[in-house]
From TrEMBL:
InterPro entries xrefs: 6-blade_b-propeller_TolB-like (IPR011042), Cyt_c-like_dom (IPR009056), Cyt_c-like_dom_sf (IPR036909), Cyt_c_ID (IPR002324), Glc/Sorbosone_DH (IPR012938), Ig-like_fold (IPR013783), PKD/Chitinase_dom (IPR022409), PKD_dom (IPR000601)
Record key words, sorted: Electron transport, Heme, Iron, Metal-binding, Transport
UniProt cross-references to SMART domains, sorted A to Z: PKD
Protein name: PQQ-dependent sugar dehydrogenase
Electron transport keyword on record: yes
Endpoints of the signal sequence: none
Domain Cytochrome c: 613-698
Pfam families associated with the record: Cytochrom_C (PF00034), GSDH (PF07995), PKD_4 (PF18911)
Region called Disordered, residue ranges: 178-200
Composition bias, Basic and acidic residues: 186-196
Species of the source: Reichenbachiella agarivorans
Length: 873
C-alpha cells in the first residue's frame, strides 16, 4: 500500500511538472534578454542617490536640492520637495538614506552643503511624510573649504545593525599636481594638500565614517571603529580613512562588509620621481583601515615624497610605515599600515583587470544581492546573484557582478546587460521586490539632461514578452493621406512566431506592415495587437491627424555650413511653405515667423535643435516649465501677467536678483496670497535668463530681424555656438490643430577642443577638453565638418614621445584620401600650433580623421589641445 501511495505521489508530481512547464534554472548565468529596463522618468536634473521605500515608492534626490518621490505602481510623481543648498564646485545635496525603521518613524537622512558663508557639510535627519520635509536635526557637521574644487563624497548607507556609514571626499584641488599626489603643504596652499584631510586622523574628510544615530538626533560611537583610544588627535567616527572621492558606497546586509568605489587621480603615465599613474579603485573593508590616499594608490603603489617648493622628491612613502609629516596635519604622524585596493584600473587597459576596458573612469559600487522572502517570484532577480556585488563605472557605462571571498578578493566577473545603453549610472539599489532600481545622471556634467532617468530592471523567468517596435511614415497631412505602419522590427527573444493585427476603424489587417490611405479628415487611431506563441499580448494605439499639412521651414546658408569665423559675414535666407497657408509674403507674413540668430554660450544645444526655438533662451525655458500654468503674457491668470511684472520691476536695479531668487525659492505676498511654487531645479543663470525675458516684455519691441540678410559674427573668441533658427506655426485646417515646424542651424566656432571627437581609439581626454593620452595607431574622428572655403588645419599639440610622431589627416574614413599630414619632432616638446595645408577637391566632407602613428606601442605619444580651421582670406 505504501509503495502504491509513493507511486501515485510521484506520478502526480510528474503530472504537475508537466502541466506547469519547464522550470527556470535559478543557478544558471542569466540571459541578458530576460532583463527589461522600464523607464519611469527622464530629463532629470543631476540625480545623485535613491532609496526604494518599504511601500515600493522610489525616493531620489538631485544635487541642486530637489527631493522627489515617485510611485511606479500608479506611474506618477507623489511628492516634490527641496532644500536650499550651496552647489558650487561639486557641492550640493549629495547623499540620502532612509532610517531602517522608516515605516514607523519617517526619518530621512540627508548629507548636503548648507547655504551661507560658512563652508561645511551637514548630515541631518528630517521627518519625511505626506507634508514633505520637516523637523531637521543636524547630527554631524563636516567643516570644508569653498575656495577650491573638488571631491565631496556624500553617500549614506545603513548596515543591518542600524549603524550609519557616510562617505566624505578629500576636499582638495587635484589640478595643480599634474595628476599625481596632491601633497603641496607650502604656505597658503592647504587646499592643495590631501594629507590635511584624507591622511589626517583628526579630520572627517577623505573618510568613511561609521556612527550610531540616536533617537534624540545625536549620535554615539560604535565599538570597532579605527580609533578607540580617546586620543585628541584622532576622530572616533572614522571607520575608513585614506579615500580620495568615495562617491558611492554599499554595505553587505548579511556579512556586514563595506564596499565603495574611489575616483582616482588623472596622471596617465608613471613618473620615475612623482610616482604611479592614476587608478580608480573599488574597495572592501571587513574591518576598519587606512586605504592610502594621497600617499598610495591601487595596490599600494607609492607616490614620491615631493617638495612642491623645490620640486625635489625625497624617496617614496612606505605603505607598511606611512608617515604624514604635512604642516597641515593636525592628527597623529604615524599612520596605520595601508590596505591595498580590491580592484584598480587606469585609463589605459589594465594588466590585472583587463575586462574593465579602457577610457575615462569613475568607479562605483552598487548593492550586494540576496534572495529574500516577499520578493516578486516572477520578476525579481534569480538566486544566481546571491552574494554577488554589483560594480559599475559612471564613465564607461558598464556593470559587472562579482564574487568577493572572505579574504576580500574579487573574482568571477560577469557583465550585466552588456548590450544596454546606459547613460552614466550614478546609483542603484534593490527593492524588496527583488528588482533593481537605477538612476542615470545623463551625459553632460552639472546640468539637466534629457537622458538622465529613473528606471527599474526586472527579470522574466518564463517565456518573454515580445518587444513592439513601430515606425509610421506620416502622422499628419491633408486628405488623402497614405501612411505606412510598419511593426516588422518587433522582436521575440524566444523565437516565437509573432501575430500582428492592425485595426483601423472596423477594418482589420493581419500583417507586420501595412499601407493605408486615410480619406476622411479628422483624427484616426490605428491600433496594433501583437501576440507571441505563448499568449503574451501587447496593444498600442497610434495617432494620425488628417486634414492639415505640416509647414516646411528651411534656412539656406551660403558658404561653409559647419563653422563661423569671428568678424566674418554669414549670408542666410529663410523660406517657409505651407500647403494650406501659402508662402512668405503670400499668405504668411513676417510677423508670424519666429526668427532669431543667437549665441548659445553654455546653453544646451540639444534642447534647442529640433524643437521650437523662441526668440530668447529665457522664453524657451519658460515655455518648457510650469510657468504658463499660472501666468499669461498679457492676461492675468492665477498670477500676474508677465507684462504686469515687467511694468512693476523694469526700473528696479535689484529686480533680476530678487525675481531670480523668487523663482527658485517660491513664496507669496507680492501679488496676493497665492504662493508661487519653488523651482529648485533651475540654476541661477537659467532664472536670470527667464527674468530678463519677462522684463523685456514691457519694453518697446525692436524691429524684426529680416528673414534674408547678412549677419556678422561676434569678433570675440569665447563664443561657442551660433544658432540660426526659424519657426512657424500654421493656422490649422479642416478642424485639425495647428502644426508647428522649426529649422535650426548650428554654426560652431572654428576652434574645436581635441575632446570634441565623436569616435576615437587609443586616446584619452581630460576634463578641460585636451586629448592628453594618445597611443600608437590611435585616431580621432570629427563629425559634420564642412571644408568649403577652408585652406588649412591648425593643430595645437605637445610631443611626449622621444621619437617623431606622424599625424595624418584623412577625409570621410580611416581608409579615405589623405588631405594633410604633420610630423612632430624633438623641438615640439612644448604646446605649439602647427598649420597643416589641406589638399581637397570638394568641401562635401562629413568627417575628418586624425591618425597618430608612433614608434613605441605603449608610450603616450602626444597631447592635442585644439583644432583650428582656417578659411580663405
Amino acid at each position: 500500500m505504501r509503495n502504491l501511495i509513493n507511486q501515485l505521489t510521484f506520478g502526480f508530481a510528474l503530472l504537475l511538472g508537466a502541466c506547469s512547464g519547464p522550470q527556470y534554472d535559478e543557478a544558471s548565468v542569466p540571459d541578458e534578454h530576460r532583463f527589461t529596463q522600464e523607464v519611469f522618468l527622464t530629463n532629470l536634473n543631476e540625480p545623485v542617490e535613491l532609496e526604494v521605500l518599504p511601500n515600493g515608492q522610489i525616493l531620489f534626490v538631485q544635487r541642486k536640492g530637489g527631493i522627489k518621490l515617485y510611485d511606479p505602481q500608479n506611474m506618477r510623481m507623489v511628492r516634490t520637495d527641496s532644500i536650499a543648498v550651496f552647489y558650487g564646485f561639486e557641492d550640493g545635496l549629495m547623499g540620502m538614506a532612509v532610517d531602517p525603521n522608516f515605516d514607523q518613524n519617517n526619518w530621512l537622512y540627508l548629507y548636503y552643503s548648507p547655504v551661507g558663508d560658512e563652508p561645511k557639510q551637514h548630515l541631518s535627519r528630517f521627518v519625511y511624510d505626506e507634508n514633505g520635509l520637516s523637523d531637521e536635526k543636524v547630527i554631524l557637521i563636516v567643516p570644508t573649504q569653498r575656495d577650491e574644487c573638488c571631491h565631496t563624497g556624500g553617500s549614506i548607507e545603513f548596515g543591518s545593525d542600524g549603524l550609519l556609514y557616510l562617505s566624505t571626499g578629500d576636499d582638495t584641488n587635484p589640478f595643480k599636481s599634474e595628476g599625481f599626489a596632491p601633497i603641496d603643504d607650502q604656505e597658503g596652499r592647504s587646499s592643495f594638500d590631501a594629507r590635511r584631510t584624507s591622511s589626517n586622523t583628526n579630520d572627517l574628510r577623505g573618510k568613511i565614517l561609521r556612527i550610531k544615530p540616536e533617537d534624540d538626533g545625536t549620535y554615539s560611537i560604535p565599538a570597532g571603529n579605527l580609533f578607540e583610544d580617546n586620543d585628541p588627535k584622532t576622530r572616533p567616527e572614522i571607520y575608513v580613512m585614506g579615500c580620495r572621492n568615495p562617491y558611492r558606497i554599499t554595505v553587505d546586509q548579511k556579512r556586514g562588509w563595506l564596499f565603495w568605489g574611489d575616483v582616482g587621480p588623472d596622471a596617465g603615465d608613471n613618473d620615475s620621481l612623482k610616482g604611479p599613474r592614476g587608478h580608480d579603485e573599488m574597495n572592501v573593508a571587513m574591518k576598519p583601515g587606512y586605504y592610502g590616499w594621497p600617499l598610495f594608490i591601487a595596490d599600494n603603489k607609492a607616490y614620491g615624497d615631493r617638495d612642491f617648493e623645490t620640486q625635489r622628491v625625497d624617496g617614496y612613502f612606505d605603505p607598511k610605515n606611512p608617515i604624514n609629516d604635512s604642516k597641515y596635519n593636525t592628527g597623529i604622524k604615524n599612520l596605520p599600515a595601508a590596505t591595498p585596493a580590491m580592484i584598480f584600473y587606469p585609463y589605459s587597459p589594465s594588466e590585472e583587470f583587463p575586462q574593465l576596458g579602457q577610457g575615462g573612469r569613475t568607479a562605483m559600487t552598487g548593492p550586494v544581492f540576496y534572495t529574500a522572502k516577499g520578493m516578486d517570484k516572477k520578476n525579481g532577480f534569480p538566486s544566481y546573484f546571491d552574494e554577488r556585488l554589483f560594480i559599475y563605472d559612471w564613465m564607461r557605462d558598464w556593470v559587472y557582478t562579482v564574487k568577493v571571498d572572505e579574504n576580500g578578493v574579487a573574482s568571477d566577473y560577469v557583465p550585466f546587460t552588456p548590450s544596454a545603453d546606459y547613460r552614466n549610472i550614478i546609483d542603484m539599489d534593490f527593492g524588496n521586490d527583488g528588482m533593481l532600481y537605477m538612476i542615470e545622471y545623463g551625459t553632460a556634467w552639472f546640468k539637466q539632461n534629457e537622458d538622465a532617468k529613473l528606471s527599474r530592471i526586472s527579470f522574466d523567468r518564463g517565456n518573454r514578452t515580445p518587444v513592439m517596435k513601430v515606425k509610421l511614415s506620416e502622422s499628419v497631412g491633408s486628405s488623402p493621406l497614405t501612411v505606412t505602419l510598419d511593426a516588422s522590427d518587433s522582436e521575440d527573444y524566444d523565437g516565437d512566431d509573432l501575430k500582428y493585427v492592425w485595426k483601423i476603424g472596423q477594418e482589420e489587417f493581419e500583417s507586420a506592415s501595412i499601407t493605408y490611405t486615410f480619406t476622411e479628415n479628422g483624427v484616426h487611431y490605428p491600433r496594433l495587437t501583437l501576440t507571441d506563441g505563448a499568449g503574451h499580448t501587447l496593444m498600442e494605439q497610434f495617432k494620425i491627424e488628417v486634414g492639415n499639412d505640416a509647414p516646411v521651414v528651411d534656412i539656406n546658408i551660403k558658404g561653409n555650413k559647419t563653422f563661423y569665423w569671428p568678424g566674418r559675414n554669414i549670408q542666410y535666407d529663410v523660406s517657409i511653405t505651407d500647403k494650406q497657408d501659402g508662402t512668405l509674403n503670400h499668405g504668411i507674413e513676417r510677423e508670424e515667423v519666429n526668427f532669431d540668430i543667437l549665441y548659445m554660450d553654455g546653453f544646451d544645444q540639444a534642447q534647442v535643435l529640433g524643437h521650437q526655438m523662441p526668440v530668447t533662451s529665457g522664453e524657451y525655458l519658460i515655455s518648457k516649465s510650469d510657468c504658463m500654468s499660472c501666468h499669461k503674457i498679457n492676461d492675468k491668470s492665477v498670477g500676474p501677467s508677465f507684462v504686469e511684472v515687467s511694468n512693476r520691476y523694469k526700473t528696479d536695479p535689484d529686480a533680476i536678483e530678487y525675481l531670480s531668487a523668487k523663482i527658485i525659492k517660491g513664496g507669496s505676498g507680492a501679488w496676493g496670497d497665492h504662493a508661487m511654487s519653488a523651482h529648485p531645479d533651475f540654476t541661477q543663470e537659467e532664472t536670470q535668463s527667464m527674468v530678463e525675458y519677462v522684463l523685456s516684455l514691457g519694453e518697446e519691441k525692436p524691429a524684426l530681424r529680416p528673414l534674408k540678410g547678412i549677419y556678422t559674427a561676434d569678433d570675440k573668441e569665447d563664443k561657442k555656438l551660433i544658432i540660426i533658427s526659424a519657426q512657424y506655426e500654421d493656422k490649422g485646417a479642416q478642424g485639425m490643430s495647428n502644426i508647428s515646424a522649426v529649422k535650426s542651424i548650428m554654426l560652431k566656432s572654428n576652434v574645436l577642443k581635441g575632446s570634441e571627437s565623436i569616435e576615437n581609439k587609443n586616446i584619452e581626454a581630460n576634463k578641460n577638453g585636451t586629448i592628453n593620452r594618445v597611443y600608437h595607431e590611435g585616431w580621432l574622428a570629427y563629425d559634420n565638418v564642412d571644408l568649403t572655403d577652408i585652406v588649412s588645419l591648425e593643430l595645437r599639440t605637445k610631443l611626449l614621445s622621444d621619437q617623431p610622431v606622424l599625424i595624418t589627416v584623412k577625409a570621410n574614413s580611416l581608409e579615405g584620401s589623405e588631405i594633410g599630414k604633420l610630423t612632430l619632432t624633438e623641438r615640439d616638446k612644448n604646446f605649439t600650433s602647427h598649420e597643416i595645408p589641406l589638399h581637397i577637391n570638394t568641401g562635401a566632407v562629413n568627417k575628418i580623421y586624425l591618425i597618430i602613428t608612433g614608434q613605441t606601442k605603449d608610450q603616450n605619444l602626444v597631447q592635442i589641445q585644439t583644432l583650428k580651421f582656417n578659411p580663405h582670406d
